[in-house]
């Protein structure tokens, strides 16, 4: 049995496995930090970039707590200026299916087009690939490019590898992908929005593979308050 982390400062104080789990991941930002490290290690400033709204002190506190809980490792490099990378441990990696189920619940009950003032980060959706995209007879490598997806306005490249048992995503450019999908944030938003489509995206190579990934990430049904299925407007 893995070592049990020490209790948090404000635990639920309930001897129940769900309460114990929420002691570790129930704080604001914790699960989003796990999601944003799914594509590989990141530095502190990179996490600040992909987590809008978190303060420097909040992020530092969360990362320190997650390291203490055995959710993250912290690796220091002897560089000038100093560099520190944070990476998921196996314990935290096992949360990806949990995040996937949470995302599916969000698609079903809370999804809509972007709200006014809501930051649109296509990379955040793409980082859910390990939990949401399965092979289902489709295997291969896809380079996804958000042409204006980087904070400095340049392109953000992500390589998605769909395997028979596990899919991965990394913020890197693929050398020889089976398919390429590219478009600006507006085009990707249309593809992932209810009632939208991928027409504004440029797809090259194995179109069936590319559309399998897109359909795995773009869910179009939710529920009315009375529980009836409907397409989200």
Write the layout of secondary structure elements.
Layout: H1 17-25, H2 30-36, E1 42-43, H3 44-50, H4 56-68, E2 72-77, E3 83-88, H5 90-93, H6 96-109, H7 122-126, H8 129-132, E4 140-146, E5 156-162, E6 167-170, E7 179-183, H9 185-192, E8 202-205, H10 207-217, E9 221-223, E10 229-231
Parallel strand pairs: 4-7
Antiparallel strand pairs: 1-3, 2-3, 4-5, 5-6, 7-8, 9-10
Can you summarize this structure?
This protein is an alpha+beta fold and 233 residues long.
Explain the overall architecture.
The protein has 233 residues and is an alpha+beta fold. The protein has 2 domains: 77 residues, Winged helix-like DNA-binding domain superfamily/Winged helix DNA-binding domain (Arc Repressor Mutant, subunit A), CATH 1.10.10.10; 106 residues, 2-Layer Sandwich (Nonspecific Lipid-transfer Protein, Chain A), CATH 3.30.1050. The chain is 35% helix and 20% strand. The chain has 10 helices and 10 strands. A hairpin with a 4-residue loop joins strand 5 and strand 6. It is globular, with a radius of gyration of 19 Å. The mean pLDDT is 88.
By DSSP (H or I, 4+ residues per run), the number of helices equals: 10
Pairing-aware structural class of the strands and helices? alpha+beta
Return the CATH architecture of the largest domain. 2-Layer Sandwich
Name of the CATH superfamily of the largest domain: SCP2 sterol-binding domain
Provide the residue-averaged pLDDT.
Answer: 88
What about the largest sheet? Answer: 5 strands, mixed
How many beta strands in the DSSP annotation?
A: 10
Write the CATH fold name of the largest domain.
Nonspecific Lipid-transfer Protein, Chain A
Rg: 19 Å
> End-to-end span in angstroms?
47 Å
How are strands sequenced across the largest beta sheet? 6-5-4-7-8
Q: What is the general shape?
A: globular
Strand percentage, roughly? 15-25%
Counted up, domains total 2
Element-by-element helix/strand order: HHEHHEEHHHHEEEEHEHEE
- Helix percent reads 25-40%
Q: What is the highest CATH level, the class of the largest domain?
A: Alpha Beta
List low-pLDDT spans.
none
